[in-house]
Amino acid sequence: MSKPSQEYQAIAEQAALNVCNTVIPMDKVPANLLEAYANLFNELLSDEEEKFAAAWNAMPASAKGLIGQAEFHGFYIANSWLQLSRVAQDIAELADSDEAIEEKEYNNIFTRLAEASLKESVKKLKKARTDRALLNSIKAVIAGR
């Protein structure tokens, strides 16, 4: 995916923040986690491997017509971050120390979680074509309501 426009980025960022705020008040997130969120946002927005673009292009027009691409991109990024946050918390609770975390094999966990989140997000949007309550819920969280 080529570098998104500033407008696209602003829409995706606002959608992602709104979705995250429904689960975690972002103004209460520690600075180091906000930095990690910003890095994840930038990485998934740049879509260098074009996984998001491929998933978006493969979706039926009826699904793509439900919400804008930038809004859906933000929805997917937020879902990825939330999943990654849950896994990181589980890992931290299980590990006795930072060294124990490093010793465990968590290779490609980010990639796997991002791919799973993209598949889940696509599945939700496709299902929303026939499930008005789900569509309304998706639109509400993207809008920050």
What does this structure look like?
With 145 residues, this protein is mainly alpha-helical. It is 75% helix and 0% strand. The radius of gyration is 16 Å and the shape is globular.
User: What about the largest sheet?
Assistant: none
List low-confidence stretches: none
Helix/strand-derived category reads: mainly alpha
Order of helices and strands: HHHHHHHH
- Evaluate the radius of gyration: 16 Å
- Individual helix count: 8
Task: Tally the beta strands.
Answer: 0
Strand content: under 5%
Q: So what's the overall shape? A: globular
Question: In whole angstroms, how far apart are the ends?
Answer: 30 Å
Mean pLDDT across all residues, rounded? 83
Index terms:
145 residues; mainly alpha; 75% helix; globular
List the helices and strands and how they pair.
Elements (H helix, E strand, L loop, with lengths): L5 H18 L7 H16 L4 H8 L2 H4 L4 H26 L3 H6 L5 H19 L4 H12 L2
A few lines on this structure:
The chain is 75% helix and 0% strand. The chain is an all-alpha fold.
